[in-house]
Design a protein that fits this description.
The complex is a heterodimer of chains A (264) and B (308). Chain A has 264 residues and is of the alpha/beta class. Chain A has helices spanning 45-53, 75-78, 99-107, 118-131, 148-160, 178-195, 206-211, 230-233, 238-249, 256-261, and strands spanning 2-11, 19-29, 34-38, 60-65, 68-69, 82-85, 166-170, 198-202, 215-220, 223-229. Helix content of chain A is 36%, strand content 23%. In chain A, the strands form two sheets. A six-stranded mixed sheet of chain A has the order 6-7-8-3-9-10, with helices on both faces. Chain A has a four-stranded antiparallel sheet with strand order 2-1-4-5, covered by helices on one side. The relative contact order of chain A is 0.17. Chain B has a single domain (3-274), classed as ABC transporter involved in vitamin B12 uptake, BtuC. In chain B, 76% of the residues lie in helices and 2% in strands. Chain B is built from twelve helices and two strands; from the N terminus they run H-H-H-H-E-H-H-H-H-H-E-H-H-H. In chain B, helix 1 (3-33) runs antiparallel to helix 9 (185-211) and helix 3 (61-84) packs antiparallel against helix 4. Chain B is globular and about 75 Å long. Chain B starts with a helix and ends with a helix. Classes of the chains: A alpha/beta (264), B mainly alpha (308). At the A-B interface, helix 2 and helix 3 of A face helix 7 and helix 8 of B.
């Protein structure tokens, strides 16, 4: 589904602030793959997502999505096939517009001058009811009134309304309280399973990195240093994962967030 | 002052308020919805007036309306392209277009800075002829202006609920969201500014035709006057749906003109209009800000006096 061939990206080349964020990175995701990505801050995880989404053009290499070369396709065109959730729940929806207006934008059906029909409303209501957080009765309220968790759940629904070819989750539960985070995570699991989405998820929680999906990637200094799936991944504990990382990256993992969250 | 004089003053205020409310509605779209402060408004207003006058003088009163709107669209298009495709800051783009339009406007008026339409058939004289035998004859200008306002509000209410309208609103409301969605912010900004400036052009055209002349300075300070009206309208109407807010814009515009007319009656010279509008904009924007700061200031003062 997604093929990254030897992509690289260096920011501010030729200056003192030069930073190689992605180094000759290749990745092949099969249709229906759900890979979790872990790695310390600055490892290039979010930059990888930015490269896939087209926030910037890569310096070298190519990006292939479902057989189509999208290396130079503009961001908003790629977005038709790529859903993305950020850590900040405020980022994915327009607070001044109502829930149904946000959903109508995400559904993106009809021409530029089409309006929300009764049929659309019924469909939105049905989809919202599946979230099971009572949003279906608040469809004409502005999104700004929702809590962070509700907004993130809504954003999840918005980005999967038209099932995308690829779903990118950038620590989308990190800013939520533990109970809400779990709810949104379960929701994510269900939606991904139901639509059989191909999905990449960045997380700082080692436990969920191993539990969720069918593949785990570890990044360091702009490279994928560890790629485990199948039988090798089953039965892997957080400690053995850390050991593997140290072997792969050739240095001790010194990220507090990762060390803390492994204790869960 | 007799009652008739008061009535006549009220009528003038209402007419001006209605005509200029079209510019307020334009800013409602660009400033409130798209979140772009379009400083080309002054020049675009004059452009609409000049183009409308030139076309009307050549004998096409109806065409003048569409020509003025089309001129507005072109102006908005250039402002939008400057800020989306050519890397010019959005405020600067408006200022640059505004400056450039000064030359264009004089060129449109055939090299002079004043066009007279005393003997020209305009949409207002046509409306007068049409209603001359009815009891409404005395109010034709207000009726014609009101018809334009109702049409524009009707269009806006419809437009802002379409998918394009929603996309424009989202662009102004959450740029981050739009950036990572399939909406092209370049397209929505261009579309929004084109539509908004069409209304600004229409507004200028109608003002010129109602006062039967165009002066190169007809649009000067229009953006401040319109912003003042927009803020007054927003305060009067409060939160609500698009229709309620759009009606608020018209109310704001009429209220502004009424206050101004009353001020003139108290011997305020006419040239003070622009200062008054500036002060209103300042009060409307910094008022809520200072109100929010007040508890902090109060605490600091009591602390200095030895309080807790």
């Amino acid at each position: 589904m997604l093929k990254l061939n030897h992509i690289s990206k260096t920011f501010n080349p030729g200056t003192v602030n030069e930073k190689t964020a992605i180094q000759d990175l290749s990745l092949h995701l099969k249709k229906g793959d759900f890979a979790t990505i872990i790695g310390s801050n600055g490892a290039g995880k979010s930059t990888l997502f930015n490269a896939i989404c087209g926030d910037f053009l890569t310096d070298s290499g190519s990006v292939i999505l479902d057989g189509a070369d999208i290396t130079f396709v503009p961001q908003h065109v790629r977005a038709k096939n790529i859903g993305r959730l950020y850590q900040d729940p405020m980022r994915g929806s327009a607070p001044g517009m109502t829930i149904e207006e946000n959903l109508a934008l995400a559904a993106g059906s009809g021409g530029w001058f089409s309006r929300i029909s009764k049929k659309d409303k019924a469909r939105f209501r049905e989809k919202l009811a599946l979230l099971d957080i009572g949003l279906e009765d608040r469809m004409s309220q502005p999104v700004g009134l929702l809590s962070g968790g509700q907004r993130q759940a809504l954003t999840l629904l918005m980005s999967t309304m038209v099932p995308p070819k690829l779903l990118l989750l950038d620590e989308h539960t990190a800013a939520l309280d533990p109970a809400t985070a779990e709810k949104v995570l379960n929701l994510t699991k269900r939606i991904v399973e139901e639509n059989q989405l191909t999905c990449l998820m960045i997380t700082h929680n080692m436990q969920s990195a191993l539990e969720l999906g069918n593949r785990t990637l570890m990044m360091d200094s702009g490279r994928i240093v560890l790629d485990i799936s199948g039988s090798e991944r089953e039965g892997l504990t957080v400690d053995s994962l850390l050991e593997k990382f140290n072997a792969g990256a050739g240095r001790k993992l010194d990220n507090d967030r990762i060390l803390l969250s492994k204790k869960k | 002052m007799t009652l008739t004089a008061v009535f006549a003053l009220g009528q003038t205020a209402l007419k001006l308020g209605l005509i200029c409310s079209l510019t307020v509605l334009a800013l409602f779209l660009s400033y409130s919805m798209l979140n772009v402060c379009d400083l080309s408004t002054d020049g675009c207003f004059t452009l609409g007036a000049a183009v409308g006058a030139a076309v009307a003088i050549s004998g096409h009163p109806f065409l003048s309306i569409f020509a003025a709107m089309l001129a507005g669209v072109s102006s908005g298009f250039i402002t939008a392209i400057l800020q989306t495709k050519l890397g010019v800051d959005s405020l600067l783009a408006g200022i640059i277009v505004n400056t450039g339009l000064y030359s264009i406007n004089i060129a449109v008026m055939g090299g002079s800075s004043l066009l007279n339409m005393n003997k020209t058939t305009t949409v207002f004289t046509m409306a007068k002829d049409m209603l001359s035998d009815t009891p409404l004859a005395a109010q034709t200008e207000i009726l014609a202006a009101a018809a334009a306002v109702i049409l524009v509000i009707g269009f806006l209410v419809f437009f802002l609920k379409t998918r394009l309208g929603l996309a424009i609103r989202a662009t102004g409301n959450n740029a981050d969201m739009v950036k990572s969605s399939s909406i092209n912010p370049v397209f929505t900004t261009v579309a929004g500014l084109c539509v908004a400036n069409a209304f600004t052009g229409l507004s200028g055209c109608l003002l010129a035709q109602s006062q039967k002349s165009v002066d190169i300075n007809i649009g000067q300070g229009m953006v401040t006057i319109a912003l003042a009206s927009l803020l007054i309208g927003g305060t009067v109407m409060g939160r609500g749906g698009i229709l309620k807010r759009a009606v608020g814009m018209v109310l704001g515009s009429v209220i502004f003109r009424l206050v101004y007319t009353i001020a003139l009656r108290f011997n305020m010279p006419a040239f003070m209009l622009k200062l008054v509008s500036s002060v209103i904009v300042i009060l409307a924007i910094s008022g809520p800000y200072l109100k929010k700061q007040w508890p902090q200031m109060k605490r600091r003062l009591t602390y200095k006096k030895g309080g807790i």
